């Protein structure tokens, strides 16, 4: 996967991962991929819902040693 930007949101509690993701998405172009790394348990449901409502696509997510990683492709 070709990642354009990586956002480190580890240690941040809700709603900060979403706030930072929103800001980072403005810095990339349509079709590019943002990787988000978070430790907040609520990030999975929050980012999934946010991506869908914003017209973006959650390509993949995984958990590794308590760190949640998400790859979101920017929509139109």
From TrEMBL:
InterPro entries listed in its UniProt record: TusA-like, TusA-like_sf
Transmembrane segments: none
Residue ranges constituting the UPF0033 domain according to the UniProt record: 7-31
Protein family: Belongs to the sulfur carrier protein TusA family.
Protein name, entry field: UPF0033 domain-containing protein
Protein's organism: Halobacillus litoralis
